[in-house]
Each structure stands twice: as C-alpha cells, then as structure tokens.
Amino acid sequence: MILLLGGSGYVGEAFQKQLSRRGIIFASIARRDCDYTQPETLRELIRKTKPHFLINSAGYTGKPNVDGCELDKENCLLGNAVLPGVIARVCAEEKLVWGHVSSGCIYTGERPDGSGFREEDLPNFSFRTNNCSFYSGTKAMGEELLGGYPDCYIWRLRMPFNEIDGPRNYITKLMRYDKIVEFTNSLSHLDEFVNACWETWERRVPFGIYNVVNPGPVTTKGVVEQMIKAGVSNKNFQFFKDEAEFMKVAAKAPRSNCVLDASKLLKCGIKMSDGYEAVERALKIWV
Amino acid sequence: MILLLGGSGYVGEAFQKQLSRRGIIFASIARRDCDYTQPETLRELIRKTKPHFLINSAGYTGKPNVDGCELDKENCLLGNAVLPGVIARVCAEEKLVWGHVSSGCIYTGERPDGSGFREEDLPNFSFRTNNCSFYSGTKAMGEELLGGYPDCYIWRLRMPFNEIDGPRNYITKLMRYDKIVEFTNSLSHLDEFVNACWETWERRVPFGIYNVVNPGPVTTKGVVEQMIKAGVSNKNFQFFKDEAEFMKVAAKAPRSNCVLDASKLLKCGIKMSDGYEAVERALKIWV
Q1: Looking at CA atoms only, how far is residue A37 from chain B in angstroms?
Q2: What is the rounded average pLDDT of the residues B256-282?
Q3: Spatial separation of the C-alpha atoms in residues A180 and A183, rounded to whole Å
Q4: How many helices (H) and strands (E) would you count in chain B?
Q5: Chain B residues near residue A43 by CB distance under 8 angstroms
Q6: In chain B, which residues have their Cβ closer than 8 Å to the Cβ of A82?
Q7: Binary contact (B89, A74; C-beta < 8 A)
Q8: pTM, full prediction
C-alpha cells in the first residue's frame, strides 16, 4: 500500500493516475481531511494504514503564480519546508521509506560551462544566496531539512506540462500571459515525471536527489513556435525586451529560469524524452 | 485583557510575573492546551477572550543551547518563523494589536564604526547572509514575515539573565560551561526586558522594532570578574583561545555575538540600566 499526501494537487492527481494505471493500491490523503503537517496525526495515519512507501506531493505553490507566495509566507514555509521536515522525522521513526516532490526552481541559470546543474550542486536561488522568490527559498529549505535523512527520494520537478489545458500547465501559462519573456529552461512533462519518480522506487535505485526533467532544455520562443505550428494557438505572442522589463512590469518575485542535468536519472535506466519532443507530443493531442 | 502566548517559557513566565505585579488581567496560553500555531484555533481563542493586546513570547530555543535547533529544524522553523506569521495575519484580520519577542541574535559583531546595530540595520546573521545558526535564521525569518504588518511591536531580546539561577540564564550558562569564550555582547536583564516591552505598549510608542537590551555591552571576562567578585562563583574559568577553537571543540552551530544599540527605546523614555550595572545587581541578590 502506498500513502499519497497532497493527492488532490496538480502533481498529486498525476500520481493518482499513474498509480491507478499501474494497478497499485494507494490511499490519497488530502490535508483538509487529515492534517498531516501535525506529526502525531501523520504517525497515526501511518500506523493505521501501514504503507510500504509514502509519496509527498503536497506543497504550497502560489495562485495564480509564484508571486502569490509572497503574500502568504507562513503557509508557504509550512507547506514547503516544515512539512517535509515533519514527514522525514516521522517516516524515520516509523521506518518508512518515501519520496518528496521538490523543485528545480532552487537554481538560476546554468553551470559556468553552460551545462545543466547536477544534483550535487548547491542551490543558487535560495534564501542562502539571497536572490530568490519566497517560494524558491522555501523549496530549497525543504531540501535542506531532508539533508540528514538517508531513506528518501528527492524528486525535482521543473515547469510541469502535459496535453491537458490548465492553470498549472506551462503551455497554458504561455498562452494566457499577455506578454512573455525569452528564457532557456528545463521542463518536466508531468506524466513522464510521475512515471520516473515511481520508477526510482520500483527499481530501488539509491535514495537521494534526482533531477526529474526532460533532457534538452527549451527556450520560450522555441515552445511558442511549436504551439503555433501545432495550431494550438494563433496568438501574436509579445515578448518583453528582457528580464529587467519583465520584472519591472509583470512580476513581484524574481523568477527561477534554469537548466538541470537529468543524467543521474537516465543512468539508472529511467527514460525521459527530449524536452522539445515531449512538448510536441503534448501539443499534438492538446485538450 | 491581555493574551499571553508561550506563557510557560522562560520569557513568558517573566511576562506573567510582570503583568501580575502591575495588576493587569491576562490569560496565559500554553500550546499544549491550545495549539495557537493553527490560524483557526488562534482566531477562536481571540474571539472568545476578546483581548485588547496580545504578547507572543512563544518560540523555539534549542535544549540545552542553540545547537539543539540544528536537530529539530522543523519545529524551530514552525515556532520562530511560521508562528509569528500566523499571529500577524490573524491579529490583522481581528484588528488586534500585539507584540512579538524576537531576538538580537540575528546580528553578529557591531557596526563598522564600532557602535551597536540599530533597528534599521538589516540582520547580518541570517539565512539571507548564509552564516548563521538555524536558530538565528528562523528568528530573522520571523521578523521578515512581520515586515508588512504595521500594528505590531518587535522586541529584540539578547542573552537574558536575572538573579535566578536557571538553565536559560546567561550567568548560569557561564558558570556551567567547562570552558568559555571571550566576546563582547549586549545583554537583556530579563525583568527589565519584559518591563520595557510592556512600557512600549503602555506608553503607546510607535509600533515597530525595538532593541530591548541594556545599554553598554559587556565582555565575557568582564562578567566573569563580576561573578568572582560577588562570590557567586569561585571557579577558575578556562577560556578558549579564540572563536575558532570554540567552534571546533564545543559548538555545532555558529554563535551570534553582537552589540545592539538601545537608543531608540531609551528615546521613548523607557529605561534600561547599564549592562554591567544590571549584572552586578543580579549577582548581589543571586538565588
């Protein structure tokens, strides 16, 4: 039995679909029904349901975007930093192995040689580097709190998308913004992401951090061209001159734009398709 | 009526004594009886008790010292950063003014000109400056979460002490450590601290941050000399050669040693005695 925390969120629902498709028995727990931020409540839940693996897909993301976190810092800290710490402690005490959905947004840019950040690189978009959004700061702190725990996967997601139109989907976001910015980014196809996360456990690869992104970063312009070519949008996309103009006009919190290296995951034999390919596939069956 | 959160702690008990002495009606709430970290629980408590001021003396300090926080980061974050954020939001919504016990340990050293840090100086011992203990990081983040709220006092305490021997008392700590380090620090006489905090509200001085410390920083050696002179200790105090040796041998987390400027508080007509004088007075009636 698998315990899924945060199962009603964007990533949690994808985990539900993935586990159902695989015929795996799981219990999806929503925080409003069972407040698993409370150690004793979580412990009781674990003792009652006796899972052999736990997935934490709960987290606080701002609405409609990361700027929302700047206005609700306490819940952002609680959901993204305190909660993983609570789960880690209770799981360690209950001898339960688990996986945590983290984020690649704790980086900005790329390695000095132009390659993607690897799992051993320290976050460079965090409270510690004092250049981050509050959201990114709390996600990096969440990973920091898991530092001492050996029996845990940390799965880093980046700008999720798939073929289903929705407010959390990167492709939908690009369509809805009045004006967008040119950046290079790693993305995670949501269904490939949850599949790969599950595979880390299924294959019993070593615990630790994994960048679960589609190899091959994409640019905003590249994705927009694909959208137009696929007929998903015929909008005349307007671009901000540069990041400075974007920050001045449209954003409150600084944005993470970064390239992550997926090779640690791929070396375990877990497949993720190329970034542009994954986007193309999603656009082909866009709903 | 005054609502006192964390009334069973070291600072909370001093607030209880102070309020009782002044004949002020208050309700002291312990978290084990009423979990005020939960916004709805806190809101209900406020609506039921209808206080006209709230004091938050709850916080997470490590046991036996700040190193303890490194081993319980989730509760440290919850108690020192999330909780003030929760209180601020609920108080703002319920139109309740309040005061928060913060800490001067979000600084290290002194201003470049040798004077103490003032309230407008940004913390320099915090996650943002990436040089701090986890405890200091969470206390600075707690202040950060209060940034947008206008109806709140932030009272900064530093190394509390008074005449009563106890594990949280700075003088007791000096006596009990096998070996100590020479540093210059601002201190807060605990009873003077709670008196001054209360006076900020009693006198309706402007809301905001106040360094509530005894003016005139002290050195470890200076205090030890006073202790020996007063006959409170006849120990042959051993000093670490320097901070580096102390960090290597005795400490896990970096320590904040700093000088704070109390003049903003004093200018409001609120008195705090000189640091060495306050120590001398405590030693004279040591229990």
Answers
A1: 10
A2: 97
A3: 9
A4: 11, 12
A5: none
A6: 74, 77-78, 82
A7: yes
A8: 0.94
Token digits for A280?
């193309």
**Residue closest to B278 by CA, chosen among B201, B196, B167, B204:** B196
What six digits make up the tokens of B67? 């190193």
Which pLDDT does position A104 carry in this prediction?
Answer: 97
CATH number for the B2-161+189-215+258-272 domain, one of 3.10.105.10, 3.40.50.720, 3.30.1950.10, 3.90.1300.10?
A: 3.40.50.720
pLDDT in tens, B234-264: 888 999 988 888 888 888 889 899 999 999 9
3-state secondary structure of B12: helix
Which pLDDT belongs to residue B169?
96
pLDDT for residue B63:
86
Distance between CA B198 and CA B196 in Å, rounded? 5
Q: Which fold is adopted by the domain A2-160+190-215+256-276? A: Rossmann fold (3.40.50)
Q: Which residues of B touch A137 (CB under 8 A)?
A: 127
Of B52, B59, B63, B144, the C-alpha closest to A127 is: B144
Residues of A in contact with B85 (CB under 8 A): 73-74, 77
- Per-residue pLDDT for B90 more than 90? yes
Neighbour count for residue A250 (Cβ, 10 Å)? 16
Predicted local confidence at residue B136, as pLDDT: 97
The 10s digit of each residue's pLDDT in A182-232 is: 999 999 999 999 999 999 999 999 999 999 999 999 999 999 999 999 999
Mutate to test the interface with A, among B71, B74, B146 (most CBs of A within 10 A): B74
Confidence tier at A246 by pLDDT (50, 70, 90): confident
Range B62-87 average pLDDT: 94
Are A131 and A254 in contact by the 8 Å Cβ rule? The answer is yes
CA gap B17, A25 in Å, rounded: 56
Cβ atoms of A87 and A100 within 8 Å: the answer is: yes
* Nearest residue in chain A measured CA to CA from B73: A145
Q: How many CB pairs under 8 A join A and B?
A: 48
Write down the domain spans for chain B: 2-161+189-215+258-272
Query: Of the candidates B78, B129, B145, which has its C-beta nearest A73's C-beta?
Result: B145
